Fold this protein.
Amino acid sequence: MKHNIVFLPIGDSSCGDAIAIRLWDGEDIGTQRIVIIDGGYKDDWQKVRDLVQDNFGAKWIDLVISTHPDQDHIGGLTGVVENLTVKQLWMHLPWNHSDEYLTNRQDEFRSMTATNWLKNSLNASNDLQLAAEANNVPIEEPFAGKQFITPYGTLTVLSPSVDFYEALLPLILDKSAEKSQRLQTASTLTSLSELFGKAKDAVMNAIESHHIETLTNSGSTSPSNNSSTIMLLELVSGKKLLFTGDAGQEALNLAHDNFVALGHRSGELGFVQVPHHGSRQNVGPDVLDKFLGTKTPQEDTKRGTAYVSAAANCTKDGHPKKSVTNAFRRRGYPVFQTGNGSIKHGHELDGFSGTVYPLPLFSEVEGD
């Protein structure tokens, strides 16, 4: 069998995700299975369409997955569902788990106290559900234990569980309301760009090497990011691939519990997605050790490969952080970045040629 994993270039000054998985017997493309994980921003559905039709030669998508409703992940999926033949959609439906979300959905989230980002994200999620229903695409929610089984491998959801997801829903609203009020207060004092600019000027670089690591376990991401669907793809060849969305340490640790329960061990992954475009708020040494193994004795020891969706000029967030890509590399997982173009993992694929190089081990990284 053969496989391709393609990370499409999403965003310019900000990052996003759109990932395509192709599995087939290596001879007849009619046997292939196509899975799309996230779709970038609203207009990025065209990139997905072009890849599926022109590069894969496929007439349909077997499974579309929305990991979570952030606009840089879910925005393009409505276009995918409306313009391509999709057999199945996995997405979380928060209004099926919370009366508060259901009530707010009725007026398109206009009256809720939240950031525009969250309101727009929830509207994008609502649009995706309505588009799927209009196009007769079955919707299922991807909670821990759910599987997509093919002749070439099985995709298993490791997180979130139903209980964890439902516990996150009120936190998402509370966090967004708090941020909305904070932004309003900040705007009366000075511009955010000035605040961030002053903070940036105060940051000093830190020194790292293969044996010196400055990344800590203190990072904390948003409840929305922790609601991301984390999935393990086990190929019949024995290769294991991990997809993480924007998940943070809390969600990753819960996913690891299920990873171990399935009989897997650290260092067995052949491929891993760097969470949240390489933010240092999402990973720390402990959770990386659990999935990837501890730091390798030698600098160039390789256990697998890591990919990060991060625009070449992701100035808004400064992703990926060098301390994060270094942390993956010193554990045997050199990181490849999308930048301005798609990157492909796996077997040969029409339209993809040339050598792509991983990010180096940086001697200077971002300080605190």
